[in-house]
């Protein structure tokens, strides 16, 4: 039984902030630039999800991927790296632990632009509803709401299976969670019909909305696996 405080929406329950252990500092690490690879014309659903924010907001966003196993490494190398200009690899104790990238290539932006007109993974335009990314600086009061899956009408998209497989072997395996940053999301009843919530509830163990109490903006979407 999930403990929490019932709020005005019957599909959410207020919970306490989830606490994370402080990361351990390991000084035996180094970062190296990944060798350039040739571009790809196709964008997989995984790449669409992570590059969509760059394109819709029209600004470069650093994206980092934990490398936990060969499955993750192969997906990142084959489906993500070919679309970025600047890719760096983080090694700890001579083992590859993380790959981060920034700067979507122009040809990949054009592919995304065409996909947004026809064929985009539907979660992408739902997740990034606004082109603005203005966050309030300074102290603010945050509320945490867990989604009650029994109240959500699930939608099964073939692309979501690929996303779930990747998250399971990467973020979930290392951290148990991934935090996505939606834009244009505000806490209201219609949010329960979000394609993102309806599709991600088919594989997540829990979904938490992190809400700025001052304006009811959803500033983070935490997916637990």
Brief descriptors of the model:
26% strand; 6-stranded antiparallel sheet; 4-stranded antiparallel sheet; alpha+beta; 225 residues; 10 strands; 28% helix
- Provide mean pLDDT, rounded: 88
Tell me the span between the first and last alpha carbons.
18 Å
Q: Segments where pLDDT lies below 50 for 5+ residues?
A: none
Classify the beta-strand content into a percent band. 25-35%
Shape: globular
Q: If helices are DSSP runs of H or I spanning 4 or more residues, what is the number of helices? A: 7
Number of domains: 1
Going by helix content, strand content and strand pairing, the class is alpha+beta
Main sheet makeup: 6 strands, antiparallel
Strand order, biggest sheet? 1-2-7-9-10-8
How many strands in all? 10
Integer-rounded radius of gyration: 18 Å
Tell me the helix content. Answer: 25-40%
Order of helices and strands: EEEHEHEEHHEHHEHEE
Kindly describe this structure.
With 225 residues, the protein is an alpha+beta fold. The protein has one domain (5-20, 40-224). The protein has helices at 45-57, 70-80, 106-117, 123-127, 158-169, 171-175, 195-200, and strands spanning 5-6, 12-15, 29-33, 63-66, 84-92, 95-104, 142-147, 177-180, 206-212, 217-224. Strands 1-2-7-9-10-8 form a six-stranded antiparallel beta sheet. Strand 1 (5-6) and strand 2 (12-15) form a beta hairpin. The model has no long low-confidence stretch (mean pLDDT 88).
